[in-house]
Amino acid sequence: MLGFLLGCHAFSEALDRGFFSLSRLHVDYGAFQLYVNGSTDLWEVDSPRGRLLLPSWGWAAWSADGKMFESSALSSGERADYCVTPDYEYLDGRGTLQRMGKLACAGGVVMTGDSFLDIGANTEIGFKSAAEGGQVEAFDANYQPLADEHLPEGRLIAEVFVPGRHADGGERIEQYTVTRRKDSLFEARIPVDSGGEYRLRVKDPITQKYAEANFRVTDLSAERRSAVRNVALQTDLARVHPGGRALELADAGKLADDIQSNVKEEPTIQVLQIWSTWPMFLFVIGLMVAEWLVRKRNSWA
Fold this sequence. Notes:
Layout: E1 2-4, E2 7-8, H1 11-16, E3 24-28, E4 32-37, E5 43-47, E6 50-54, E7 58-63, E8 69-75, E9 78-84, E10 89-92, E11 98-100, E12 103-105, E13 108-112, E14 115-120, E15 125-127, E16 136-137, E17 156-165, E18 171-182, E19 185-190, E20 196-203, E21 210-218, H2 231-238, H3 255-258, H4 278-297
Parallel strand pairs: 14-21
Antiparallel strand pairs: 1-2, 1-3, 3-4, 4-7, 5-6, 7-8, 8-9, 9-10, 10-13, 11-12, 12-15, 13-14, 15-19, 16-19, 17-18, 17-20, 18-19, 20-21
């Protein structure tokens, strides 16, 4: 079912009201929603994550169960690409520092579990983390948001164990301020200058115990992580489409022969007057010739 502008409309109604001239598309699959803005004007749409401003050729899509959401929309006046699924979270700030979900970056970043992949154009990556891999939250003994009086200098201190060691063999430890974002939620921005295993820990000012989280950062792009082609992945992607299969470069010459076009036949009915057909014409001519022969044989005038 296709919908244009503020809701879903019948094809005839969309045509009559001129919605096609706006080049805006809303596809409702029931369990999945898709918006694409082909117009040069901004398009404001409602989503499970609030109002979205779609620029020219921006898009948004989400599943009804809330497990998948992605968009290419304006954030703080600049375009950013964001996607979150049960397996990973992705953000590309397109050169502007953006905050979405658990990530903050200016370039592209993918987070899977406690691992980060820096796709590029990042000097620092911000994230929300805790021992269980979620947000940093602080509560008192009554499970109320931690009051400022329990915080040294009104903040928490995070210690980050970065990859590598000092010349004397000791661990490289850096400290960062974890400031309150709202109520019990605290957030830290930690620059990542090199790939490897990172360990983050924050000390509870009441129990004096540490909450820790580990994450991995790689300094290679997704394309450069392996110099060997992933044949299994290539085959799986090809099989996503029914009848699809992967071909090697040596088989490229056979591609045209392997592509099977589905010929669709549509019967048509053509109504013709019987007297305007060739068989009827020949029949009439035959009668006239037969009459002429009979008259000639019998010497009829």
